[in-house]
Amino acid sequence: MKFRLRQMEVFRSVMLTGTISGAAKMLFISQPAVSRFISQTEESLGYKLFNRVKGKLVPTPEGEALYNEVEDFYQHAQRVDDFASDLLHGPAGVLNISSSPCLSYSVMPEAITRFTRRYPGIQVNYHTTMLNSMAQEILSNKVDLAVSVLPLEHINLEVQAFRTGRMVCVIPDLHPLAPKQKISLEDLSQYELISHHPSIQFGKLVRTAFESAGLVFNSRIHIHQTEVACSLVRAGMGVAIVDEFTVSNGAWVGLQVRPLEQDILLKPSIARSVFDRQGTHAEKFIEILLSPIP
Predict the structure, then answer these.
(1) Which of 11, 74, 125, 128: CA 20 to 30 A from 39?
(2) Which pLDDT score, from 0 to 100, does residue 87 have?
(3) How does pLDDT run across 9-39, given as a tens digit for each residue?
(4) What is the pLDDT of residues 42-87, one digit of tens each?
(5) 31: burial class by Cβ within 10 Å (0-12, 13-18, 19+)?
(6) Which residues contact 259 (CB under 8 A, 6 or more apart)?
(7) Would you state the pLDDT for residue 156?
(8) How far is CA 94 from the centre of its chain?
(9) Which residues, other chains included, contact 294 with Cβ-Cβ below 8 Å and sequence gap of 6+?
């Protein structure tokens, strides 16, 4: 091996701390030892990892690229360590999961609550992430699984839809459309919409629905987060089409939620790596998601 494990560890420490002295403190070794490791590594690899600029270590492009690979390696090593601990302690350990932000209002809190009650020994690390980042998180082993509001498409992902949802309309309490029990896209074409940016999947879905109905899509304000759309509607900026999950728990006082006459469907899905091992804590969480709420 040109790049040995100890060299990776020293290189990573220098990248994280930015200095030879900082890496030495992190690793509990001398500064000359760190310098020697870096010099030997650069010599064995055949290129520079750092430039010395005014007494500081500045990573070269090769150093930056190599660090990304090393960091992925350390993340995977941490997962292996967690798994080894799981084997010792039985039904304990860590489950790392992520989801689309809109599912953090009801779907994920319900599932995580049920999971932790059933498996009190398992720690859950949970965060939200956007659809375009999910595949990378899964395949780099930063999460055991991701729950997306729409199915992910990737050759190395195993994707399973587990429920359906719809886009809905949100309007202020006193809006002219408030008396209607259902709102059509034709109704909404008479107003300026607060909509997701066209580059976001929600934005594409809504725009496509209007085009398919032969209607003009009139939007002056583009947003990236659904809760921002709800805040703008509540402030009186207009009306919006959002996912039902963000507004399902009734947390948005001052807003009226109405179903659309034309369905714009969502398919929340579970995504895992095709290379992932079976029988992990992820399997337990998937069982929770697939089972009906008591």
Answers:
(1) 74
(2) 62
(3) 899 888 888 888 888 888 889 999 999 999 9
(4) 999 999 999 988 777 899 999 999 999 888 888 777 777 766 766 6
(5) middle
(6) 166, 168, 169, 182, 183
(7) 87
(8) 18
(9) none
Q: How far apart are CA 117 and CA 98, in angstroms?
A: 19
- CA 190, 194, 198, 203 dihedral sign is negative
Higher pLDDT: 125 or 87? It is 125
Q: Taking residues 243-269, what's their average pLDDT?
A: 90
Q: Which amino acid is at 282?
A: A
Other residues' Cβ atoms within 10 Å of the Cβ of residue 89:
10
- Classified as helix, coil or strand, 140 is coil
Q: Using CA atoms, how far apart are residues 194 and 182, in angstroms rounded to an integer? A: 19
Q: What is the DSSP letter of 213?
A: T
pLDDT in the model for residue 279: 56
Q: Give me the residue label for tokens 């997962």.
A: 79
The answer to whether 38 and 50 have CB atoms below 8 angstroms apart is yes
Question: Cβ distance 257 to 181 under 8 Å?
Answer: no
Cβ(137)–Cβ(259) under 8 Å? no
Residues 6+ apart with CB under 8 A from 48: 42, 60, 62, 63
Where does residue 49 rank: exposed (0-12), middle (13-18), buried (19+ CB within 10 A)?
buried
Residue 120 has pLDDT above 90, yes or no: no
Q: How many C-beta atoms surround the C-beta of residue 67 within 10 A?
A: 18
- CA 53 to chain centroid, in Å, comes to 37
pTM: 0.67
Task: Fill in the amino acid letter for 168.
Answer: V
So what's the pLDDT on residue 150? 95
Name 257's Cβ contacts closer than 8 Å, sequence gap at least 6.
Answer: 168, 169, 170, 244, 247
